[in-house]
Amino acid sequence: AQKITQTQPGMFVQEKEAVTLDCTYDTSDPSYGLFWYKQPSSGEMIFLIYQGSYDQQNATEGRYSLNFQKARKSANLVISASQLGDSAMYFCAMRVQGAQKLVFGQGTRLTINP
Amino acid sequence: DSGVTQTPKHLITATGQRVTLRCSPRSGDLSVYWYQQSLDQGLQFLIQYYNGEERAKGNILERFSAQQFPDLHSELNLSSLELGDSALYFCASSVAPHRGEKLFFGSGTQLSVL
Q: Nearest CA to B78 among B103, B47, B42, B51?
């Protein structure tokens, strides 16, 4: 079975600092994809970044990067130079090859302080 | 704007009633997913359709049903509503249910059962 664990219910960071949101996953399938989504207070789910299990390099999308450590089964999201608008819930998710659904973690609420 | 349209945005109803939530996927997306988000359960996968056919079922109650129509829009029907059904219901779409295909989410329907 697939499982995503996000151990940080909440995080508080000063504006302009870098922040790392933790995500560990559990699957026995060698082919899978890892996703991060952002949910601001307005409620919509916004896709941020994707990492495939066979990708050799860590994914990057602007200020977002994914620190993928396959042996440790971790896929931490790194946000560089945080901004006030980064305050939101962040969800890590996984889908294994052949599975239809995306499985989400419980989320981390990130608060950026001015 | 993700391109996924959900209506209505808010729904307030009473216990025992029946409601229908509607979703129009992004143009070109064949796969539609329904998720329920509540404070205690997090984001739970309900059901998925691909090109009109049901492909996967998650933690969907028997009181709930869904379908995807030939024009690819989908409806989620919730009946005999209970207080515990109050939640944010998301529809998401993707081109195909491949492990690397990201899901694009609608803005959700906030259901309140009183």
A: B47
Least confident of A36-40, A83-87, A93-97: A93-97
Q: Are strands B19-24 and B53-57 parallel, antiparallel or unpaired?
A: unpaired
Would you tell me how many other CB atoms lie within 10 Å of the CB of residue B5?
16
What pLDDT is stored for residue B40 in this prediction? 82
C-alpha A19/C-alpha A76 separation (Å) is 10
User: A32 to chain B: which residues are within 8 Å by CB?
Assistant: 99
Band of the pLDDT at B24, cuts 50, 70, 90?
very high
CA of A97, closest CA in chain B: separation in Å?
A: 5
Chain A positions in Cβ-Cβ contact with residue B108 (cut-off 8 Å):
43-45
Report the amino acid identity of residue A8: Q
Binned at pLDDT 50, 70 and 90, residue B99 comes out as: low
Could you give the CA distance from residue B108 to residue B7 in angstroms, rounded to a whole number?
Answer: 8
Contact call for A102 and B107, based on CB within 8 A = no
Q: What are the C-alpha distances in Å from B61 to residues A26, A53, B11, B16, B81?
A: 26, 33, 19, 15, 11
B25–chain A Cβ distance below 8 A for any pair: no
State both tokens at B105. Answer: 């989410």
Stretch A42-47: mean pLDDT, rounded?
92
